[in-house]
Amino acid sequence: MMLTKAGEQLYPYVNDVLTSVERLNCFENDLTEYKGILRIGVGETLLCYKLSPVLQKFHDLAPNTRLFLRSMNCYDIRNELLDCILDLGIFYENVGGFGNNLTVASFGNYPMTLVASPEIKKEYSDFITPNQNIPIPFIINEPNCIFRQIFEQYLQRKSIRLDHTIELWSIPTIKNLVKSNVGISYLPTFAVKNELNNGELVALETELTDTHISGVCGYNSNK
Question: Which residues partner with 67 through β-bridges?
């Protein structure tokens, strides 16, 4: 038996298919051979308090992959995913929609806590009664911070006015200032869990008792 001319033309394609099937069978073993660059934008609190074990596991599976991590505002992460600048985004869903081109999966739903030092709480503990002037600063990220927007909308609804706002990017620095009696902050509970447990920070009551934020992982469906 001999191949026809059509068979000779088809043979390279069949060989490619069989090679691809073999690669699929070895897919799990090939993970450690992955190489290249992965650009990831991450919300600051998630990067500080949630991502370390995930990154460690990823490194174990694909040690030859180069990760470029950027601590970013959630709105900027969403926009850079849409523009195909980032490969992956890990952020909060409260950004007013994702557009049609993003594939997004939720990975956690987290409560929020208004925190202060024990000394500040003794003097200023009421953040529920409306129409107040409370002479302490609010220490938080820049204006597009999801947490800041939630709490400032609450203050506006209650007609509660704070002294001023201190804007910082670093969550550990924000917590240190709050522990030092400089002001109050509104953060995901997981970011202040240790300080609440050891008494360095205390929770202040608000009417935002059911407020949660959802963490999401997203990528552009066209990438």
Answer: 38
Sequence letter at residue 33: E
pLDDT in tens, 156-185: 999 999 999 999 989 999 999 999 999 999
Dihedrals phi, psi of 129, to nearest 5 degrees:
-60, 130
Encode burial over 159-172: b for 16+ CB neighbours within 10 A, e otherwise: ebebeeeeeeeebe
Angle, CA of 213, 214 and 216, to the nearest 5°: 145
* This prediction's pTM: 0.80
Phi and psi at residue 173, to the nearest 5°:
-65, -40
What single-letter amino acid sits at 70?
R
Place of tokens 């925190």: 115
CA distances from 13 to 21, 88, 104, 199, 203 (A): 13, 34, 36, 68, 66
Strands 36-42 and 65-71: parallel
